[in-house]
Amino acid sequence: MVLLLGDKRTFAAEVGDSDGTDMRRVDLWAADEWLTCHDNTVYVPQFRHYVGLTLDRLPPAAVPFPGLSAC
To answer: pTM for the whole thing?
Structure first.
């Protein structure tokens, strides 16, 4: 089962099924653009770690897509 988190028109992550390992397909979308068209296989523990680091470094009022963000 594929899980879609968010809205592809603004920002979304589409996570594929586990294949029994820590590898998964993860597609990222922003402003209706598919960002991971060339490399969408992730090692989940490392991916989760680096997403967390990125979120921690964002300024509190950062709006990545002005006019499209809900903020």
So the answer is: 0.69
Distances in Å between the Cα of 67 and the Cα atoms of 20, 60, 63, 64 are: 40, 17, 9, 9
- Whether residue 28 is predicted with pLDDT greater than 60 in this model: the reply is yes
The string of DSSP codes covering 1-57 is --EEEEETTTEEEEEPPP-SSSEEEEEEEETTEES-SS--EEEHHHHHHHHHHHHHH
Cα distance between residue 57 and residue 1, in whole Å: 32
pLDDT over 90 at 25, yes or no: yes
User: Model confidence over 35-49: pLDDT tens digits?
Assistant: 998 999 999 999 999
